[in-house]
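Hi all, posting the design record for the shared folder.

TITLE: backbone redesign
STEP: 1 of 1
STRUCTURE INPUT:
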């Protein structure tokens, strides 16, 4: 199985962590860094209505990002991440440290929201960790079913 990433607030940090591993070219297909809403629309097919109604930091958006990453790659597993890393950009509804994740295969998409303390670097680093742990969890669940 190969992996594709669709990243916003991590700015390619997940892809960087993956490619630090020698031999990752055997299982890492590509990464999309879609920091702007327009990039999410153009590169991943996120619906403008989704972004308008729910915003970039939402369950709906990360689900569409993961689906789009699968559609526009050759991978079988996708992860997506979008959040508010700070120090600015937070709102009462979406505070700094709020990050949405989604993990997908052609058969399933699951999403989770996490709230991380700390500065921008801490939020981004923890987001990379959770994103990759989610891939491991998804793969473990797939192998248990098989």
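Okay, here is what came back for every position:
SEQUENCE:
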């Amino acid at each position: 199985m190969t992996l594709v990433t669709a990243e916003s607030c991590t700015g390619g940090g997940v892809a960087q962590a993956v490619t630090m591993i020698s031999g990752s070219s055997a299982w890492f297909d590509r990464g999309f860094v879609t920091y702007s809403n327009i990039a999410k629309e153009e590169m991943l097919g996120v619906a403008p209505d989704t972004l308008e109604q729910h915003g970039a930091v939402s369950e709906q958006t990360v689900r569409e990002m993961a689906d789009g990453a699968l559609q526009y790659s050759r991978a079988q597993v996708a992860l997506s991440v979008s959040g508010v890393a700070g120090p600015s950009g937070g709102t009462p509804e979406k505070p700094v440290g709020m990050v949405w994740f989604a993990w997908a295969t052609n058969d399933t998409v699951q999403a989770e929201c996490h709230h991380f303390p700390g500065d921008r670097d801490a939020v981004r680093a923890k987001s990379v960790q959770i994103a990759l742990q989610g891939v491991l969890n998804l793969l473990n669940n797939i192998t248990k079913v098989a």
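COMMENT: The chain has one domain: 3-145.
Let me know if anyone wants the other runs.
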